Description:
The complex is a heterodimer.
Chain A: H1 6-24, H2 46-61, H3 64-67, E1 73-81, H4 89-103, E2 107-108, H5 112-127, E3 147-159, E4 163-176, E5 182-195
Parallel strand pairs in A: 1-2, 1-3
Antiparallel strand pairs in A: 3-4, 4-5
Helix pairs in contact in A: 2-4
Chain B: H1 2-19, E1 30-31, E2 34-35, H2 44-51, E3 52-54, E4 62-71, E5 74-83, E6 89-98, E7 112-116, E8 120-127, E9 135-142
Parallel strand pairs in B: 3-9
Antiparallel strand pairs in B: 1-2, 4-5, 5-8, 6-7, 6-9
Amino acid sequence: MKRLTVPARLAAVCALALLVLGGCAKDTVRYGDARGVETVTNEFGSTDLQMIAESMTRSMLDAPIVTANNLPIVTVQEVRNKTNEYIDTRAITDSIRAELQKSGKVRFAVDAAGMANQKEEIDRQQDDAYYDPEQTAEKGRMVGAQYRLEGNITSIVKQAKDVKDVYYKFNLQMWNIRNGLLEWTDEKEIRKTTTKG
Amino acid sequence: MKTIVVAAALTVLATTAGCASRKGFEKEGFAFGCPIGDTEIGSMEALIDAKVAQEGRRTNVIVTEMRCTMSGDRMKIEANLNNDAAQIRRVAYKFRWIDPEGMRAAEEEAWKPVLMYEKSNHVVSAIAPSNKAVDFRLLFMGQD
Lengths: 197, 144
């Protein structure tokens, strides 16, 4: 068997050391600022979600329908994702709803997504003999919403050799359920550009 | 007699001029519409010093003007950011809302990124999350 030369031996030892050290390297985990600016990729991220939710909430709280202090009852319908990427639009509307609810200026009626659970609970209370009949939730007592929230999120993506540009537009509307009038609407635009190198 | 009349007129003029309120300071405890409490604030620069703070990475983007007003029962703020540099600058900002007891009036806002072109101004505005927010701080940091 042919013996290795000195430089070849050195190179082999270095390669082995690198492999061992590489294997020992630990991943570092740190907590970050959940509300910090996130720029890991230019796909839809936490900063976009937070900016949209904050912008829409503040704008809606300034709408005449809300400032009139009539405590409008609202239900959240779908925000359609018209982008090419997966975006959990429910997370956006949940954030908007949480902010609005905290303001104490808007009340929310159960939405279509939560209706099955609501009905199931009423039925369970009604049908279960273990509950005090005086205190069980009765059918026919739910309050219907006066307004419904719906919206869209769209994007335009342009990509060249070293540049990727993403433009998002989020639009939210509040419709009067009884008369079909648009009571409030607003938009939030976001542009993100990634440059290689 | 004529001298007396002129002197009297001058006195009246001087008195009324002294009583005239300076623009932006008409309401006690407020400067340019923004709440200042008992703080001695006599200029826009002093108001900005009191209300603006830099956190994290420093930047030479500065706030040059700030005005507040009420929208219904909630405070509304506009602040002008200025980039005097010959390069694009990126900053992030957020408002911190304070209640009458000096505590946070709302959960901390998200940092909002802003691109500032060379030699440009950018107006950021905010409306208080609730009527409990009676004071505020504008925080910003460099993102370059």
